[in-house]
TrEMBL record:
Gene Ontology biological process: cell-cell adhesion
Keywords associated with the record: Disulfide bond, Repeat
Entry-linked InterPro entries: Ig-like_dom, Ig-like_dom_sf, Ig-like_fold, Ig_sub
Domain of life of the organism encoding this protein: Bacteria
GO cellular component: a single term: membrane
Name of the protein: Ig-like domain-containing protein
Domain Ig-like: 14-95, 100-181, 186-267, 272-334
Length: 334
């Protein structure tokens, strides 16, 4: 005789065929851990982070839809079943790469004297950061650190500077603009020129200070300041002999040092003046000598004697003598 059949069912112990894998993602991305438990009977799952159960994480996979820096850590899964003992997967490490972010912007504006140094800096956070400074939107070759320095500024360096901060994750971020203004040092393009004028005429000295920033002028005579002479030109409306001398101008500005022009000499020519007139009248015997003289002051004097208003040829000194007078010599001499 044969007994009735007795069925034997084999329940599979908990097992892990393939556990979760270590992953690196950028903050904000999603991440999924998976486990393959083969044919474990009556399987159940419990995912853990850093050894602590994750509430509700009880399926064969665990997904974080939008990662944050706080999600970084060690993840594993406990696989249980009808049979014991449960098994725990090897831990998978989750690394969260931070997005690039600027935490301190460059200074908004700088006004630098030409020739001085200018420096820009930015503070940023993120993973695998790199930097590229730009001037007016164009990359500056070699400017790839978090600071950018111009050791000796020139006029052409004026502009708006920004930096693009990139990292392992995207997108990159661009700083706010930092405006660099170059203040021009005092300079003299053309200075005052030496002049000669006649007394009573006007004279003007001028200076070109180029693009000096915050320009200020001080004219001097013989090294002493002229009160009120603080413009780019200095005029003496009616010159006198006392105005003769050496004139220069000190050009100052926002930046230092001031500069002084070369000196221009002002020469005042005196007007001709008669200081002693000829004798008013003479009565001379025919055949005797007659002499006329004049004393005069002035610059570059010349003389021309006249008889009755008519030039006397050759009579061009301050005296005029007729050695032997004749009747025809009578007249009015000037």
């Amino acid at each position: 005789v044969t007994s009735t059949a007795s069925i034997l069912t084999i329940r599979e112990n908990p097992e892990i065929i393939a556990g979760p894998a270590t992953q690196t993602v950028c903050a904000g991305q999603s991440v999924t851990f998976n486990v393959n438990v083969g044919v474990t009977t009556g399987v159940s799952y419990q995912w853990r982070k850093n050894g602590s159960n994750i509430v509700g994480a009880t399926s064969s996979s665990y997904t974080i839809a939008t990662t944050a820096s706080t999600d970084a850590g060690s993840y594993d899964v406990i696989v249980s079943g009808t049979c014991t003992p449960p098994v725990t997967s090897a831990a998978a490490t989750l690394t969260i790469n931070a997005l690039p972010a600027i935490t301190a912007q460059p200074v908004a504006s700088q006004a630098i004297c030409e020739g001085s140094a200018a420096s820009f800096s930015v503070t940023a956070s993120g993973t695998g950061l790199s930097y590229q400074w730009k001037k007016n939107g164009v990359d500056i070759s070699g400017a790839t650190s978090n600071t950018y320095t111009i050791a000796t500024t020139a006029t052409a360096d004026a502009g708006t500077y920004t930096v693009v901060v990139s990292g392992t994750c995207s997108p990159s971020v661009t700083s706010t603009g930092a405006v660099l203004t170059i203040q021009e040092r005092p300079e003299i393009i053309t200075g005052p020129t030496t002049q000669t004028v006649c007394a009573g005429q006007s004279v003007t000295f001028s200076v070109s200070a180029g693009v000096t920033t915050g320009v200020f002028y001080q004219w001097r005579k013989n090294g002493s300041n002229i009160v009120g002479a603080t413009s780019s030109s200095y005029t003496i409306a009616t010159t006198a002999s006392t105005d003769a001398g050496s004139y220069d101008v000190i050009v100052s500005g926002t930046c230092t040092p001031p500069v002084t022009s070369t000196a221009a000499t002002l020469t005042i020519n005196a007007l001709p003046a008669i200081t002693a007139q000829p004798v008013a009248s003479q009565a001379i015997c025919e055949g005797s000598a007659a002499s006329f003289s004049v004393t005069a002051s002035g610059t570059g004097l010349t003389y021309q004697w006249k008889k009755n208003g008519v030039d006397i040829s050759g009579a061009t000194s301050n005296t005029y003598t007729i050695a032997t007078t004749a009747t025809a010599d009578a007249g009015t001499y000037t």
